[in-house]
Design goal:
Elements (H helix, E strand, L loop, with lengths): L1 E8 L2 E9 L14 E9 L4 E5 L12 E4 L2 E2 L4 E9 L2 E10 L2
Antiparallel strand pairs: 1-2, 2-5, 2-6, 3-4, 3-7, 7-8
């Protein structure tokens, strides 16, 4: 299962992490190869205004994970995390960022 955890208040994000729960992929022998996790931010009109692109990891891993730095967003809207495998977006999870 892909999870995206975000903590904070209003536009201030104090903690953000996304990754795959290794119990979900326990049956997979090789895991995820050539993976990266991106964080994106969009305004209330769903227009993306910021992307934090993760590094592509060439090794295979059953539990890919990435954290992002604390920050204050310039707009309300949503914060999303996206898992890419071999250059293809496989799964996303978003949270609304509101007052």
């Amino acid at each position: 299962m892909f999870t995206h955890i975000i903590r904070g208040s209003g536009r201030k994000i104090t903690y953000q992490n996304a990754g795959v729960d290794c119990a979900f992929v326990a049956a997979m022998s090789s895991g995820f190869c050539n993976w990266r996790i991106d964080f994106t931010y969009a305004d209330t009109s769903n227009r993306a205004y910021r992307t934090s692109r993760g590094r592509t990891h060439s090794e295979c891993k059953i539990d890919p994970m990435r954290s992002n730095s604390p920050q204050t967003l310039p707009r309300y809207g949503k914060a999303c995390a996206h898992l890419h495998v071999n250059g293809v977006r496989r799964v996303s999870q978003c949270h609304h960022v509101t007052k």
